[in-house]
Amino acid sequence: MIGATGAVGLEVIQLLEKRNFPVSQLRLFCSERSAGKTFQFRGQTLVAHTVDREALVGSDYAILCADATTARSMAPMLAELNIVAVDNSSAFRADPAVPLVVPEINGELLKSKPILVANPNCTTIVSLMVAAPLHRVAQLERMTACSYQAVSGAGLAGMHELESQARAWASGEKVAGQLFPRPILFNVFPHNSPRQSDGSNEEEHKLARESRRILACERLRVSATCVRVPTLRAHAVALHLEFTNAISPAQAVDILSQAPGVRVVDESNGDQPADPQMASGLDEVLVSRIRVDHGGTPGKSLALWVVGDQLLKGAALNAVQIIEQLIAR
Question: Which of 212, 258, 263, 280 has the fewest CB atoms within 10 Å around its CB?
Answer without folding.
Answer: 258
